[in-house]
Design the sequence.
């Protein structure tokens, strides 16, 4: 039966699974609820078989566009009123998702950029901890440029180290072992002028928190959680 109080959220998940689990856990923890029925209705398509987004952007692997579009259609067919996707790099294929459905898609990129501007209105340069696919697709560079903000990202050895960390986190290795290495990459962005840091990959908050870095850290997962809850509870 359709929930007449809140919107139903469709989650394009599994990109990767632990990041999706983190998103879901934060949704539950952040929703004001005294009983089960106070929570919002989420339909999660946790599909880890979607082709690697980073390889696709680099031209080294198949495109995930068709798989993402199929997930979006399934979620719409299952009753979702809007879609979210707790993966930053996959937003390089946002167009395929939006073309496949008639319901809104809430962008983690746009929500995170807006959150940075809202929290830190004087900011001129943001350091984005993001994967190669997200960086090469210029997702954050483009979104922040529209707001008059410069972006610095991992380069050269930092970029390689970041991707090694992400894939090791995805493989299930103990995340806390990687905090120092991720902190070093963040510090390099600060050295190049970042006044604020953005966790532009949903694996980052699995190993790094704001207390670990020398500048404020805006977590894209947390931002998407807040946007999802607000939109879901605003309706009906």
Sequence:
């Amino acid at each position: 039966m359709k929930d007449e109080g809140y919107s139903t959220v469709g989650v394009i998940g599994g990109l990767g699974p632990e990041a999706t689990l983190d998103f879901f856990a934060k949704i539950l923890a952040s929703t004001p609820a005294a009983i089960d029925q106070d929570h919002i209705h989420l339909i999660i398509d946790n599909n880890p078989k979607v082709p690697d987004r980073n390889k696709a952007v680099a031209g080294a692997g198949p495109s995930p566009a068709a798989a993402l579009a199929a997930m979006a259609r399934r979620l719409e067919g299952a009753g979702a009123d809007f879609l979210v996707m707790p993966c930053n790099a996959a937003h390089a294929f946002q167009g395929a998702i939006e073309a496949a459905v008639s319901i809104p898609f809430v962008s983690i990129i746009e929500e995170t950029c807006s959150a940075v501007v809202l929290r830190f209105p004087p900011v001129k340069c943001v350091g984005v901890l993001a994967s190669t696919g997200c960086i090469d697709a210029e997702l954050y560079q483009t979104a922040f440029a529209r707001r008059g903000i410069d972006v610095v990202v991992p380069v050269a050895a930092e970029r390689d180290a970041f991707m090694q960390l992400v894939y090791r986190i995805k493989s299930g290795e103990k995340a806390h072992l990687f905090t120092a290495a991720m902190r070093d990459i963040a510090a390099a962005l600060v050295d190049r002028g970042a006044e604020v840091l953005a966790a532009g990959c949903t694996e980052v908050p699995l190993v790094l928190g704001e207390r670990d870095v020398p500048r404020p850290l805006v977590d894209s997962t947390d931002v998407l959680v807040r946007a999802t809850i607000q939109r879901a509870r605003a309706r009906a």
Observations:
- Residues 8-108+223-234 form a domain with the Rossmann fold fold (CATH 3.40.50.1860).
- Strands lie at 8-13, 41-46, 82-84, 105-106, 125-129, 150-152, 196-199, 217-219.
- The mean pLDDT is 95.
- The radius of gyration is 17 Å.
